[in-house]
Amino acid sequence: MLLMNIFIRYAATSAACVVIATVVTNANATSIAGHRAFYEMRMGTIDDNAPVQSVSGRSAFVLEKECSGWRSAEDYMIEFGSAEGRVDRILSHFESWESANGDQYSFDIAEKSSFQEDKDFGGYAELKADGGAATFLLEPDDSVVLPENTYFPMQHVRTIIEMAGDGEKILSASVFTGAEPDDALMTTNTIIGGWRGVESEIDLGALDVDGFWPVQVAYFKPTATAVEPEYEIQFWLQPNGVVRQYEIDYGDFSIIAQLVNIETIDAPQCQ
Fold first, then answer.
1. At a CB cut-off of 8 Å and minimum separation 6, what does 137 contact?
2. pLDDT value, residue 24
3. Element housing 56 (H / E)
4. Exposed, middle or buried: residue 61 (CB in 10 Å: 0-12, 13-18, 19+)?
5. Residue 5 per-residue DSSP state
6. How confident is the model at residue 43 (pLDDT cuts 50, 70, 90)?
7. What is the dihedral of CA 7, 8, 10, 11, to 10 degrees?
8. Is the pLDDT of residue 214 over 80?
9. What is residue 25's predicted lDDT score, i.e. its pLDDT?
10. What is each CA distance from 229 to 3, 6, 139, 217, in whole angstroms?
11. Which end of the chain is more exposed for a tag (fewer CB within 10 A), N or C?
C-alpha cells in the first residue's frame, strides 16, 4: 500500500508541480517553490473494526526545479499496528521527473515491507493531444493507455492552484500518478475550499504565505461503478505548492501527515 506516495505523485503532496521561478507572497499567484519538507505521520479517524488500529511514521519529500522540468523524491518509513498486536513496517523510496510543459513523466519505486515482496521498478509516460501511454518496466513489461486530457501530478497541482486563485471550486480529471499498473491511472474529483488566512504552526521562512486552500481529492478506478472512492486526500495547499498538512482517508481509517520542518531549494540558473 503506497501512502504518502499517492499524494506526492498526485500532488503535492502532495503532495500535493510546474515551472518555478520565485516563491509567491499572495494567494492569487501560482509559482511553485522548490523545497525539502519533513512530515510526521499519525492515526487520524478510525473505526473499531478497521484492520489498522495504530499508525506512526515520518517522511522526507523533495521538490526540485530543473531546467527542463521538475524532479521529486520521497523517502518514508511507516508502521501499522493491528488489533491483534501485530506491527508491520513499510520503507519506501519514490522518485519522479515531469517535463515543464507536462507532456512527459518518468518514475522509479523501491519499497520494502514486512508483509509483502519487495518492489523495485520504474516506468515512463508521454502525452499527446489525443491521449498517450505509460510503460512499466516490470517482468514482463506492461503498459496503460492514457485518455485524452490526462494530467501528470505537477500539471494537476498547477491547475488546482490556478483554479483556486480564480475562485473556482470543482475539477474532474484523469491523473496518472506512477504506481503499479492497476493503480497508476485514477479518475479524480477535486473540491477546492475558500482561502484561509491562517498562520503556520511552524516557521516556514521564505515559504510562508500566511494561509492556504483546503483541498479534497477523491480517487476512483477508471472502471469503478461504486459511489465511494478508493481513497480520499484532504490537504492544506499554499499557492507555492507547500502542503502544511494532509490526511489520506481509506474509509475505515485515515492517516494524518503534519509538516514539521521545511527548507527552500533554489531554482537553477538556466539559459
1. 121, 122, 123
2. 32
3. strand 54-66
4. buried
5. H
6. very high
7. 100
8. yes
9. 31
10. 15, 14, 30, 10
11. C
Strands (E), 100-184: 104-113, 119-128, 131-137, 142-146, 170-176
Contact 188, 219 (CB under 8 A): yes
Residues 6+ positions from 54 with CB-CB distance below 8 Å: 43, 79, 80, 81
Is residue 253 within 8 A of residue 44, CB to CB? The reply is yes
Q: Please answer whether residues 233 and 219 qualify as being in contact, where contact means their C-beta atoms are separated by less than 8 angstroms.
A: yes
Cell numbers representing residue 146 in the block: 492514457
Please give the model's pTM, rounded to 2 decimal places: 0.86
Query: Which residues lie below 8 Å from residue 61, measured CB to CB, with a gap of 6+?
Result: 4, 8, 13, 14, 15, 36, 37, 38, 39, 72, 73, 74
Q: Please, are residues 90 and 112 in contact by the beta-carbon 8 Å criterion?
A: yes
Taking alpha carbons only, the member of 117, 8, 1 closest to residue 51 is: 1
All cell numbers assigned to 163: 483554479
Q: For 106, what's the count of Cα atoms within 13 Å in the CB-facing half-sphere?
A: 6
State whether residue 9 is helix, strand or coil: helix
Residue 20 neighbours by CB distance under 10 Å: 22
Give the N- to C-terminal CA distance of the chain in Å, as an integer. 41
List, as one string, the DSSP characters of 19-73: ---S---STT------EEEEEEEEEEEE-TT-S--EEEEEEEEEEEEETTEEEEE
Cell numbers found for residue 101: 510543459
Cell of 43: 492515526
Grid cell, residue 169, equals 471550486
